[in-house]
Design brief:
176 residues; alpha/beta; Nucleotidyltransferase, domain 5; Ribonucleotide Reductase Protein R1, domain 1; 2 domains; five-stranded mixed beta sheet; two-stranded antiparallel sheet; 8 helices; 37% helix; elongated; binds zinc ion
Length: 176
Protein backbone atom coordinates (compact mmCIF):
# COMPACT_ATOMS: atom_id res chain seq x y z
CA UNK A 1 0.00 0.00 0.00
CA UNK A 2 1.40 3.36 -0.97
CA UNK A 3 0.91 6.61 0.85
CA UNK A 4 1.26 10.23 -0.09
CA UNK A 5 0.94 13.60 1.54
CA UNK A 6 -1.07 16.29 -0.20
CA UNK A 7 0.11 19.81 0.40
CA UNK A 8 -0.74 21.82 -2.73
CA UNK A 9 -4.02 22.60 -4.55
CA UNK A 10 -2.66 20.84 -7.67
CA UNK A 11 -1.93 17.65 -5.74
CA UNK A 12 -5.39 17.83 -4.19
CA UNK A 13 -7.07 18.21 -7.59
CA UNK A 14 -5.15 15.23 -8.98
CA UNK A 15 -6.00 13.18 -5.89
CA UNK A 16 -9.70 14.00 -6.26
CA UNK A 17 -9.55 12.68 -9.84
CA UNK A 18 -8.14 9.41 -8.49
CA UNK A 19 -10.71 9.32 -5.69
CA UNK A 20 -13.65 9.72 -8.04
CA UNK A 21 -12.77 6.28 -9.47
CA UNK A 22 -12.34 4.56 -6.12
CA UNK A 23 -15.05 2.17 -5.06
CA UNK A 24 -14.57 2.60 -1.35
CA UNK A 25 -13.18 5.57 0.49
CA UNK A 26 -12.51 5.86 4.18
CA UNK A 27 -11.69 9.19 5.69
CA UNK A 28 -10.71 10.40 9.11
CA UNK A 29 -10.55 14.00 10.19
CA UNK A 30 -8.32 15.46 12.87
CA UNK A 31 -9.39 18.63 14.59
CA UNK A 32 -7.75 21.03 16.96
CA UNK A 33 -9.56 23.68 18.95
CA UNK A 34 -6.51 25.18 20.63
CA UNK A 35 -6.33 28.96 20.20
CA UNK A 36 -9.67 29.00 18.37
CA UNK A 37 -13.25 29.18 19.57
CA UNK A 38 -14.41 26.33 17.41
CA UNK A 39 -12.74 23.15 16.22
CA UNK A 40 -10.51 23.71 13.23
CA UNK A 41 -9.78 21.06 10.65
CA UNK A 42 -6.11 20.27 10.90
CA UNK A 43 -5.50 17.11 8.92
CA UNK A 44 -7.55 14.71 6.79
CA UNK A 45 -6.57 11.11 6.23
CA UNK A 46 -8.01 9.29 3.28
CA UNK A 47 -7.83 5.56 2.68
CA UNK A 48 -8.79 3.73 -0.50
CA UNK A 49 -8.25 0.10 -1.43
CA UNK A 50 -4.60 0.61 -2.37
CA UNK A 51 -3.66 4.08 -1.25
CA UNK A 52 -3.42 6.18 1.88
CA UNK A 53 -3.16 9.93 1.78
CA UNK A 54 -2.83 12.67 4.32
CA UNK A 55 -4.22 16.05 3.30
CA UNK A 56 -2.89 19.16 4.96
CA UNK A 57 -5.76 21.65 4.69
CA UNK A 58 -3.45 24.50 5.65
CA UNK A 59 -1.42 24.03 2.49
CA UNK A 60 -3.75 22.21 0.10
CA UNK A 61 -6.15 25.15 -0.02
CA UNK A 62 -9.88 24.95 -0.64
CA UNK A 63 -11.29 21.51 0.16
CA UNK A 64 -14.63 22.14 -1.54
CA UNK A 65 -13.73 19.94 -4.52
CA UNK A 66 -12.67 17.19 -2.16
CA UNK A 67 -15.99 17.16 -0.27
CA UNK A 68 -17.86 17.21 -3.57
CA UNK A 69 -15.83 14.25 -4.79
CA UNK A 70 -16.86 12.33 -1.68
CA UNK A 71 -20.49 13.32 -2.09
CA UNK A 72 -20.86 12.66 -5.81
CA UNK A 73 -18.44 9.87 -6.81
CA UNK A 74 -19.39 6.33 -7.76
CA UNK A 75 -17.93 5.01 -4.53
CA UNK A 76 -19.52 4.18 -1.23
CA UNK A 77 -17.95 6.36 1.39
CA UNK A 78 -17.30 4.19 4.39
CA UNK A 79 -18.62 6.20 7.25
CA UNK A 80 -20.72 6.19 10.35
CA UNK A 81 -22.19 9.62 9.76
CA UNK A 82 -22.09 12.50 7.33
CA UNK A 83 -22.77 15.99 8.61
CA UNK A 84 -23.45 19.02 6.49
CA UNK A 85 -21.36 21.92 7.72
CA UNK A 86 -23.48 24.80 6.47
CA UNK A 87 -26.75 25.36 4.66
CA UNK A 88 -25.68 23.76 1.37
CA UNK A 89 -23.21 21.13 0.21
CA UNK A 90 -20.98 23.99 -0.93
CA UNK A 91 -20.21 24.69 2.69
CA UNK A 92 -18.62 21.29 3.09
CA UNK A 93 -19.20 17.99 4.78
CA UNK A 94 -17.78 16.46 7.87
CA UNK A 95 -17.54 12.71 7.66
CA UNK A 96 -16.97 10.94 10.93
CA UNK A 97 -15.55 7.45 10.49
CA UNK A 98 -14.18 6.28 13.82
CA UNK A 99 -13.85 2.67 12.73
CA UNK A 100 -11.31 3.55 10.07
CA UNK A 101 -8.91 5.41 12.28
CA UNK A 102 -6.79 2.41 13.21
CA UNK A 103 -6.92 0.98 9.71
CA UNK A 104 -5.76 4.25 8.22
CA UNK A 105 -3.00 5.04 10.63
CA UNK A 106 -1.63 1.57 11.10
CA UNK A 107 -0.01 1.62 7.67
CA UNK A 108 1.63 5.02 7.89
CA UNK A 109 4.97 4.75 9.68
CA UNK A 110 5.58 7.32 12.44
CA UNK A 111 8.44 8.87 10.44
CA UNK A 112 6.17 9.37 7.44
CA UNK A 113 3.59 11.09 9.64
CA UNK A 114 6.10 13.83 10.45
CA UNK A 115 6.64 14.27 6.71
CA UNK A 116 2.96 15.12 6.38
CA UNK A 117 3.57 18.35 8.24
CA UNK A 118 5.16 20.56 5.61
CA UNK A 119 6.59 23.08 8.03
CA UNK A 120 8.39 20.27 9.88
CA UNK A 121 9.98 18.72 6.81
CA UNK A 122 13.02 21.03 6.62
CA UNK A 123 13.67 20.31 10.31
CA UNK A 124 13.61 16.53 10.10
CA UNK A 125 17.05 15.02 10.26
CA UNK A 126 18.44 18.07 12.07
CA UNK A 127 17.77 16.87 15.62
CA UNK A 128 20.70 15.76 17.76
CA UNK A 129 19.39 12.21 18.00
CA UNK A 130 18.45 10.30 14.88
CA UNK A 131 15.50 8.61 16.61
CA UNK A 132 14.29 11.90 18.12
CA UNK A 133 10.59 11.93 18.97
CA UNK A 134 10.54 15.74 18.89
CA UNK A 135 9.20 15.78 22.42
CA UNK A 136 11.64 16.61 25.24
CA UNK A 137 14.87 15.38 23.69
CA UNK A 138 17.84 17.77 23.97
CA UNK A 139 18.91 19.33 20.69
CA UNK A 140 15.54 18.76 19.03
CA UNK A 141 15.23 20.97 15.94
CA UNK A 142 11.41 20.79 16.01
CA UNK A 143 11.14 21.95 19.63
CA UNK A 144 13.67 24.70 18.92
CA UNK A 145 11.45 25.91 16.07
CA UNK A 146 8.43 25.89 18.39
CA UNK A 147 10.35 27.93 20.97
CA UNK A 148 11.37 30.38 18.25
CA UNK A 149 7.73 30.76 17.19
CA UNK A 150 8.33 29.31 13.71
CA UNK A 151 6.16 26.23 14.27
CA UNK A 152 2.74 26.23 15.96
CA UNK A 153 2.75 24.13 19.16
CA UNK A 154 -0.61 22.53 18.34
CA UNK A 155 0.76 21.10 15.11
CA UNK A 156 3.52 19.31 17.03
CA UNK A 157 0.97 18.17 19.62
CA UNK A 158 -1.15 16.72 16.82
CA UNK A 159 1.88 14.94 15.38
CA UNK A 160 2.56 13.35 18.77
CA UNK A 161 -1.03 12.20 19.03
CA UNK A 162 -0.99 10.66 15.54
CA UNK A 163 2.34 8.93 16.18
CA UNK A 164 0.96 7.56 19.44
CA UNK A 165 -2.15 6.25 17.68
CA UNK A 166 0.01 4.72 14.97
CA UNK A 167 2.22 2.94 17.51
CA UNK A 168 -0.79 1.67 19.44
CA UNK A 169 -2.34 0.31 16.25
CA UNK A 170 0.88 -1.45 15.27
CA UNK A 171 1.51 -3.00 18.65
CA UNK A 172 -0.88 -5.93 19.18
CA UNK A 173 -0.04 -6.11 22.90
CA UNK A 174 -1.29 -2.61 23.53
CA UNK A 175 -4.22 -2.92 21.21
CA UNK A 176 -6.25 -5.09 23.65
ZN1 LIG B 1 13.45 16.26 17.30
Amino acid sequence: MSHQTITTPAQLAEFCRQLSKAELIGIDTEFVSEDTYRPELCLVQVATHDELAVIDPYRAGDLKGFWQTLATGRHTTSQSSLHLLGKSSDDGWIVDSPGLKVFGLAHIPPDALAEAFVELRPLLGHCRFRDCRHDREPGCAVQQAVMAGRVAPFRVALLHRLVEESRAARDPVRRG
